From TrEMBL:
Known function: Converts cobyric acid to cobinamide by the addition of aminopropanol on the F carboxylic group.
Top-level lineage group: Archaea
Pathway in which this enzyme or protein is active: Cofactor biosynthesis; adenosylcobalamin biosynthesis
GO molecular function terms listed in the Swiss-Prot or TrEMBL record: ABC-type vitamin B12 transporter activity; threonine-phosphate decarboxylase activity
Name recorded for this polypeptide: Probable cobalamin biosynthesis protein CobD
Pfam family, one: CobD_Cbib
Keywords: Cell membrane, Cobalamin biosynthesis, Membrane, Transmembrane, Transmembrane helix
Length: 332
């Protein structure tokens, strides 16, 4: 039975990737992450409304925001664990793999980022900067209205590098440790951070715990990411030695504790400079920012994803199986 379970756990990864490639994201009305977002929005508004009538407004928001972050993450993880267990014990192996793969797919995205970036690049290729800026505004928080073509490309490459950790590596990393409940735990925390983990006056207290949890939970995957990106750069003929140099020098330039790691690796490997105006600069402008550079960054992350799955994720799952971890987790 232990060997059968580990085969199923590994199979779930490839079925989930197949779903992502063929079908992409599910409709918003049934997307678990969208539903989680609605819950976050509902309770955040409730907390903010209640805090208006309290003298200890800041402490109240911080405490209630922490309860929201921890409570929602725990609840989602437990619900997903229960659904997984029921599909396994009541419906059998095939349904377990299908249900788990479907849930796992909603926690990561390879095709969606690729699609968004290519939409922007198509408009740049047509010299349609206004439409490129509008498309870019869908995936970044910065003001895109006056960005030049080079700044748009820079933002795209930054998104590709950061999403390799946030959108692929981290959810699959936690899947490798805790199966689907682990990947959904990660996605819940990441969604909390993306919605309320800001430092502005409205969010800085209610989203404090969400931001902290996201920083903590991404710390290990972000610092593992250079290994897979550098090997990918070796395979694809990029300047991997410079990527190491730039990462050591610039990874702390970003306000985010984690985002600077994959972005500085990408900047160094492509011999370009990535810049968010008034926030950070990563790398040196040895070569120009071009559409081809952006396409290369996508290629690098795709190869790195395969390297991660075969050289790290599957071996970790098998090692944990040796110690009967999956037997304990699934109660078999």
């Amino acid at each position: 039975m232990p060997l059968e379970i580990v085969t199923e756990i590994i199979s779930i990864i490839f079925v989930a990737i197949l779903i992502d490639i063929i079908l992409g994201e599910p409709p918003n009305r049934i997307h678990p992450v969208v539903m989680i977002g609605r819950i976050i929005n509902f309770f955040t508004k409730m907390i903010k409304n209640a805090s208006r009538y309290r003298k200890d407004k800041d402490n109240f928001e911080k405490v209630m925001g922490s309860i929201l972050a921890i409570g929602l993450t725990a609840t989602v993880s437990l619900v997903v664990y229960y659904v997984s267990m029921q599909s396994l014990f009541l419906l059998g192996t095939i349904f377990f793999v299908i249900v788990s793969a479907t849930l796992l797919k909603t926690t990561f995205s390879i095709r969606a980022m690729d699609h968004h970036i290519k939409e922007i690049l198509v408009e740049l290729d047509r010299n349609n900067l206004d439409e490129a800026r509008r498309n870019l505004s869908k995936i970044v928080s910065r003001d895109t209205q006056n960005l030049s073509e080079a700044r748009i490309i820079s933002a795209c490459i930054e998104c590709v590098a950061e999403s390799f950790v946030d959108g692929i590596l981290s959810p699959l990393f936690y899947y490798g440790l805790l199966s689907v409940p682990g990947s959904m735990m990660y996605r819940t925390i990441n969604t909390l951070d993306s919605m309320i983990g800001y430092k502005d006056e409205y969010h800085n207290k209610v989203g404090w715990m969400s931001a902290k949890l996201d920083t903590i939970i991404n710390a290990i995957p972000a610092r593992l990411s250079p290994v897979f990106l550098i090997v990918s750069m070796m395979v694809s003929g990029q300047d991997w030695k410079n990527s190491i140099k730039i990462c050591k020098r610039d990874y702390q330039n970003t306000e985010s504790f984690n985002a600077g790691v994959p972005m500085s690796i990408m900047a160094g490997g492509l011999n370009i400079q990535l810049e968010k105006i008034d926030h950070y600069k990563l790398g040196d402008m040895k070569e120009q920012l071009t559409i081809q550079k952006c396409k290369t960054s996508i290629k690098i992350t795709k190869i790195a994803t395969l390297i991660f799955i075969f050289s790290f994720l599957i071996p970790i799952i098998m090692i944990l199986n040796y110690f009967d971890w999956w037997t304990i987790l699934f109660g078999i």
